[in-house]
Specification:
40% strand, ten-stranded antiparallel sheet, mainly beta, five-stranded mixed sheet
């Protein structure tokens, strides 16, 4: 009878525990991410029974959690853009307090920003953890497999945005007919049979109202190039350019067309008279000296006429999101060559200087130029950076010094490793410098360059437009990767990557965090705690941080929440079962009491 009494008492305790489990499940039927708990029963025996005798031991109850049971992921009723639900394995990582060393894990994705912009699990002291990312959504943490690489997700630190321009691509057609306006000087080579070659002369204005010896002048850059790219160009000043390269000069001309000063590419002041030129190559045994195309008189500035030239601009954004403009001039140079001259940056109006320009040697210059060459089929052939000079106007007569790089070689207009022009500048507004040789320098993509048959017209091209008046034609608007300053207007969750995306009023959308999905070898072994969070232990095994949807981890759905896995009909059924079992155990106790009473009466 004692065994029966003890067994009935254990039944009362076990079914009371089962009823408590049912009560807790029903209480959390609306709790986001809650996992229903089940009560399991195990029988107890005091000793092995003999014959028909059974030594009743009773029953014990224990709870079993099913953390992996998937709840339905539905759009959140609040439409909060920071709500998240996981479909599949895994949990969100949270910290107990901001910057707390204690991490926990949860399936509850009801996160909302606190007054400082930290995403907080609603109604708790737990805060969402995520990997910081760059603007491409790539994780920047040095050890992304360690939970210490995660940070509290704070959206307020991204309340404004600006992205500096590092890539600029243009697509435009340079009018081939404009090459006819370039001044050419012809000579006959010693080839067999002899061939007629040209030296092509182009000039581009750099600055106006430059005082030279008290005279108001315009500063030009003059270049002389051989049509035969194998020929070396020389002048009577004693300068010689390498084969295929131009000789360049700085020329100051007054309003009457009179030259006030000429400076060669070495920075030497060569007076007021243009030099005579010559060319030599494998087919010309010595330089062929000449002045103009008729070889009868000294070449003058008036002989050059007015070659085709058109002013354009390149607009970019610095790291503060401020628009910066580089005035750019394109001048036809003959022989399918153009001179692209880039001047120091200004504001969009072109009236105010906003920064400084630097050449390949890191020297501050007012402008630099490129020779942009095309093939006979209109495709881009090559881009050459021309030498630069440092100018000093303090004496009233401009003097020049040939710029050198750190190795002592002549500095030129900077080129990227792919042979494209680079805009190298510092800014007056305090934005980060964007200098040649750094990752932030602005590379200008003019298209795929190459010899005839390999060059392309996917950027610049040179075709005859058939127009009476030549003009540069823009084939499509320039493309650049910079973005002007903008204010944060909201955040959302990318359902593919699990990235938190910040949206700004300038139209920019930038990934700011990637939310990991944390998995365990045995998620059902996690220790459940208050606030719907879990702690890892030996039974659960070590955590693994995964990108959403990879390595068996579940996917993340934004603006949605996982519902509780409690089935109320099942819980009511379990409640009735527990009630009946409890009542039956009570009856056993009553019956056992009567048996004790009868036994005592017999003894008396």
């Amino acid at each position: 009878m004692d065994a029966a009494m003890n067994s009935a008492v254990s039944a009362l305790q076990a079914n009371q525990a089962a009823l408590s489990t049912v009560s807790d499940n029903l209480a959390n039927s609306g709790t986001t991410g809650y996992k229903a708990v089940q009560t399991q029963f195990n029988d107890l025996l005091t000793q092995q029974g003999v014959g028909i005798a059974t030594n009743a031991g009773g029953v014990q109850a224990f709870t079993r959690q099913d953390v992996t049971l998937q709840g339905t992921v539905l759009s959140s009723q609040s439409n909060a853009t920071t709500d998240m639900g996981i479909t599949g394995n895994g949990m969100f990582a949270v910290s107990n307090g901001l910057g707390g060393a204690q991490q926990a894990f949860t399936r509850n994705g009801a996160f909302s920003p606190d007054n400082n912009g930290n995403l907080q699990l609603a109604g708790t002291n737990f805060f969402l953890l995520g990997w910081p990312t760059n603007a491409k959504g790539q994780v920047t943490a040095t050890n992304p497999d360690n939970i210490a690489s995660l940070q509290n997700v704070n959206i307020n630190q991204f309340n404004s945005s600006a992205t500096e321009t590092t890539q600029y691509s243009m697509q435009q057609n340079m009018p081939a007919e404009a090459q006819n306006d370039a001044y050419s000087m012809s000579y006959t080579s010693n080839a067999t049979p002899p061939t007629t070659e040209n030296l092509d002369v182009a000039f581009a204005p750099l600055r106006q109202n430059v005082m030279v010896n008290g005279v108001n002048t315009t500063e030009y850059q003059l270049s002389v190039t051989a049509s035969n790219n194998q020929a070396q160009v020389s002048d009577s000043f004693g300068n010689t350019a390498n084969a295929g390269q131009p000789l360049t000069y700085t020329v100051f001309v007054d309003g009457s067309g009179n030259i006030q000063q000429i400076t060669d590419q070495a920075g030497n002041n060569q007076g007021t008279t243009l030099p005579t030129f010559g060319a030599s190559d494998a087919n010309t045994s010595s330089a062929v000296g000449f002045t103009n195309s008729t070889n009868t008189s000294q070449l003058t500035w008036q002989d050059l006429g007015t070659p085709f030239s058109e002013a354009t601009s390149i607009s970019v954004f610095d790291s503060l999101g401020v628009q910066q403009t580089f005035p750019t001039t394109w001048t036809a140079a003959g022989n399918n060559d153009w001179i692209m001259t880039v001047s120091s940056p200004t504001d969009p109006s072109g009236k105010t200087s906003t920064g400084s320009l630097y050449d390949s040697g890191g020297n501050k210059v007012s402008s630099y130029s490129y020779q942009v060459s095309f093939n006979s089929d209109g495709s881009l052939n090559s881009v050459t950076g021309l030498p630069t000079l440092t100018e000093d106007d303090s004496s009233g007569t401009p003097t020049f010094t040939q710029n050198l790089d750190s190795a002592g070689n002549p500095a030129t207009a900077p080129l990227a490793t792919n042979g494209q022009p680079v805009l190298s500048a510092t800014w007056n507004d305090g934005a980060a410098p964007q200098l040649a040789g750094t990752s932030t320098a602005i590379s200008v993509n003019l298209g795929t360059a190459g010899a005839l048959g390999t060059g392309q017209t996917n950027g610049l091209s040179q075709f005859d437009t058939g127009e009476t008046k030549p003009a540069i034609a823009v084939k499509s608007a320039p493309v650049q990767n910079g973005v002007q300053y903008g204010q944060l207007i909201g955040v959302s969750v990318d359902n593919t990557t699990g990235n938190i995306i910040a949206s700004y009023n300038n139209g920019q959308k930038v990934p700011i965090y990637k939310i990991p999905v944390v998995t365990f070898p045995n998620e059902n072994g996690l220790t459940a705690e208050t606030d719907g969070v879990y702690q890892a232990n030996q039974q659960s095994g070590n955590y693994t941080l995964n990108s959403a949807g990879t390595n068996g981890a579940g996917s993340i759905t934004g603006q949605a929440l996982e519902q509780s896995t409690v089935d109320t009909s099942t819980e009511f059924s379990n409640m009735i079962t527990a009630q009946q079992a409890y009542s039956a155990a009570s009856q056993v106790i009553g019956t056992d009491k009567q048996m004790f009473t009868s036994l005592i009466q017999v003894v008396q």
